[in-house]
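Appendix C: a fully annotated inverse folding record. The material below is reproduced so that readers can follow the format used throughout the book. The structure is listed first as tokens, followed by the designed sequence.
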């Protein structure tokens, strides 16, 4: 990775000023490379080769978990059954489920059915024919986090269910395609918003993608809406999620009494897909590379 910024180059902080007039620190300072610059400016911890390998290993477990769940999803199972599957398989692989006890979250996986946007707590709810169910897993393996989710059909989907899952899937695909050095965080959200709203759907604002790898949620925030060219410039070694939550109706959400479950305010269906990505020299690589 070419991690030197020229004095006369545009500052990577996105100010539009020259680097030497902006974030360039004193000569001889150990901070004058991207790694220190992104840390000092944004609190973003760029990942090195070993880190990427570690996150990728965790990503392999993510894919196994999602496949395991996919194979078991059918009418009649409870959301708690999904929790049991995820919890036991994670432990069997010497990993830890990051959601368990995270800020008081009581289970090992988020399971979000129909109008539940995200952060559904597994419990007694029984999946029925025609439901859509999002399963969001984040194992920690050898200290490295990888975070991904998919929305599955239970039995035969309605045309509404097919539509929202298609638009959510495509939203991640389009957001992901914007990831390359030189583009900005804003480009990602801009592309997703334009597409999803063009399909007559809406983009949830309250929850965003995020840096990940050393911790569950690191800087930067990655909104799924926004303006082209705005925000932090992407550089190789950044690792973050894109995880658009797309509603069939209005964008507004409500948090239930349990302080976790997020539902659409209008009761409309919501779907989501998430992957963990690393910015490479010429684009991105998914560290949780399921087909979209
Ligand atoms: N996995 C979610 C995300 O994509 C976060 C869940 S937080 C939890 O960021 F506590 F609900 F697990
Ligand atoms: Co996430
Ligand atoms: Co997640």
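Designed amino acids, in order:
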């Amino acid at each position: 990775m070419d991690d030197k910024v020229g004095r006369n180059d545009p500052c990577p902080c996105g100010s539009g000023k020259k680097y030497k007039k902006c974030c360039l620190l004193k000569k001889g300072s150990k901070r004058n490379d991207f790694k220190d610059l992104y840390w000092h400016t944004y609190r973003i911890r760029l990942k090195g080769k070993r880190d990427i390998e570690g996150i990728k290993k965790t990503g392999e477990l993510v894919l196994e978990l999602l496949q395991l769940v996919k194979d078991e999803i059918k009418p009649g199972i409870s959301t708690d059954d999904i929790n049991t599957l995820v919890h036991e398989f994670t432990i069997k692989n010497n990993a830890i489920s990051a959601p368990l006890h995270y800020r008081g979250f009581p289970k090992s996986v988020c399971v979000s059915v129909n109008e539940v946007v995200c952060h559904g707590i597994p419990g007694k709810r029984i999946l029925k024919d025609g439901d859509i169910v999002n399963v969001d897993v984040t194992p920690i393996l050898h200290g490295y986090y990888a975070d991904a989710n998919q929305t599955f059909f239970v039995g035969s989907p309605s045309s509404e269910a097919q539509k929202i899952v298609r638009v959510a899937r495509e939203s991640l695909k389009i957001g992901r395609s914007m990831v390359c050095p030189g583009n900005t965080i804003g480009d990602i959200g801009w592309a997703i918003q334009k597409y999803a709203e063009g399909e007559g759907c809406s983009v949830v604002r309250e929850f965003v993608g995020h840096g990940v790898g050393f911790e569950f949620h690191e800087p930067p925030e990655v909104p799924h809406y926004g303006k082209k060219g705005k925000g932090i410039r992407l550089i190789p070694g950044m690792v973050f999620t894109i995880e658009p939550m797309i509603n069939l109706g209005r964008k507004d959400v409500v948090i239930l009494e349990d302080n976790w479950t997020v539902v659409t305010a209008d009761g409309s269906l919501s779907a989501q897909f998430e992957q963990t990505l690393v910015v490479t020299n010429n684009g991105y690589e998914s560290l949780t590379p399921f087909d979209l």
